[in-house]
Amino acid sequence: MEPTGAVQGLRCPDCETIHPLDADQGCPTCGTACTVAYDYDAVDAAALFDRGAPPRGTDAATGSQSARGQWQYDALLPFDAADAVTAGEGATPLVAADRLADELSVDSVYIKDESRNPTGTIYDRGMSIAATAIAARGSPEAVEPAAVATTGNSGQSAAAYLGRLGVRSYAFVPSRSAFSNKAMINVHGGEMQVVGGRYSDAADAVDEQLAGDYYSLQEFTTPYRQEGAKTLAFELYADLGAVPDVVFVPASTGEVVVGVAAGFEELVTIGVADETPTLVAVQPTGCAPIATAVDSGASAPEPWAVPDTIVGELEVPDPAGGEQAVAALERLNGAAVTVDDDEILESAVAVASNEVIEMGAAGGAAPAGAWRYADDGGFDGDETVVLLNTESGTKTPDILRSHLMGPGG
Q1: Are 136 and 124 in contact (CB under 8 A)?
Q2: From the CB of residue 360, how many other CB atoms can be counted at a distance below 10 Å?
Q3: According to the model, what pLDDT value does residue 51 have?
Q4: Separation CA 139–CA 22 (nearest Å)
Q5: How does the average pLDDT of the chain come out, rounded?
Q6: How far apart (Å, rounded) are the C-alpha atoms in residues 306 and 321?
Q7: Among residues 190, 99, 178, which one has the least CA distance to residue 360?
Q8: In whole angstroms, what is the distance from residue 241 CA to residue 234 CA?
């Protein structure tokens, strides 16, 4: 796993040591989770966003191509596109929502629809890169078993991408996770362990049942999951020709907030953009550790004592990336808002009814957060706003329909 291009290796944020790319289970010196280090001076920024250029990996003579989607940005990814374990994730649609723009009294609103990824979730971006890291070891089966605690979507994604490699994987899911996720984990060939309780119970069960003898796909253990999330920022810039003014991100473990923030910051570092957008994290009122920390001025969230939200994907009481997410929001002049479950579900249903896009319950947090932000006077009126739909409506159709039918019977 030798670094290529601008990649230097994995950097430990505590001891500042740079390690090889296979040190992806924590710093060998101090155990801290590492991040990917790049030599940004070695990145050809103009080529990275050259709309006239063929997709990365395309042979000019034959026209064959090996990389579209997120892997066209492999100059700022830890592995080459030619080696990617990919199912075409990324390059998801950016859909104009003019009616929402009128309702929010802003210049324009777009929905970045991550439901179009292979397993219907944004987590496919990071799992593709994590699976590529496993494949790059040369003997993927050497990491078996791979394991992850999950609220549902990331477990389904992990089963899919590791199934491509023939690697045995475990997903530990709380019993209240969506049935669709549970079913598809098995369909993709993954092993599922249903744990009574909530996400934190599933996280505890991984070590208890596997006795520490596994390869972790957990966010902020592997450095590669947030690397996938950052490509969303690259695509927004490429689609709009500029960075948007405000981006609303449903927040759970902090992975997506941290990854998207890093992507925008890298655009500034390589000289493509002059500034970063305002990043707004959205959490349900019944489980809002990141938002509460931001509002109180704390540098890190306190664990949420009694989580209570029907939006299971966002019910993460002690987010692994909470401190990093709070720091990212501060750097990007960001904010955090909380919205009630009814507002989240109503927003997801309204988008499906009026904008075609099928949002899952978690995705509904983005428009709900934008409406709350507007009510609080957050917009000036001339903004370009992006709402991140993190999952497909097919993940939680029963919850959405129950909400729709509730008032009228």
Answers
A1: no
A2: 30
A3: 60
A4: 12
A5: 93
A6: 19
A7: 178
A8: 10
**Tokens representing 369?**
């957060």
CA angle 283, 284, 286 (to 5 degrees): 130
- Cβ atoms within 10 Å, residue 143: 22
Residue 211's region, left for phi above 0, alpha for psi from -120 to 50, else beta, is left
Q: Are 89 and 125 in contact (CB under 8 A)?
A: yes
> Does 374 score more than 60 pLDDT?
yes
Q: What is the pLDDT of residues 201-212, one digit of tens each?
A: 999 999 999 988
Amino acid at 236: L
Give 179-203 pLDDT, tens digit per residue.
Answer: 999 999 999 999 999 999 999 999 9
Beta pairing, strands 335-339 & 35-38: unpaired
DSSP state letter for 118: T
- What is the pLDDT, as a whole number, of residue 405? 85
Q: Collect all residues with Cβ–Cβ distance below 8 Å to 236 and sequence separation of at least 6.
A: 94, 112, 243, 244, 247, 386
The string of pLDDT tens digits covering residues 312-340 is 999 999 999 999 999 999 999 999 999 99
Express each pLDDT in 162-181 by its tens digit: 999 999 999 999 998 999 99
* Number of helices and strands in the chain (H, E): 13, 13
Q: Are 188 and 180 in contact (CB under 8 A)?
A: no
Q: What is the DSSP string of 248-280?
A: EEE-SSSHHHHHHHHHHHHHHHTTS-SSPPEEE
Single-letter code of the amino acid located at 126: G
CA-to-CA separations, 24 to 12, 142, 292, in angstroms, rounded: 10, 14, 31
**Encoded amino acid at 8, one letter:** Q
Spatial distance between the Cα atoms of 255 and 98, rounded to a whole number of angstroms: 29
State the residue for tokens 């988008």. Answer: 351
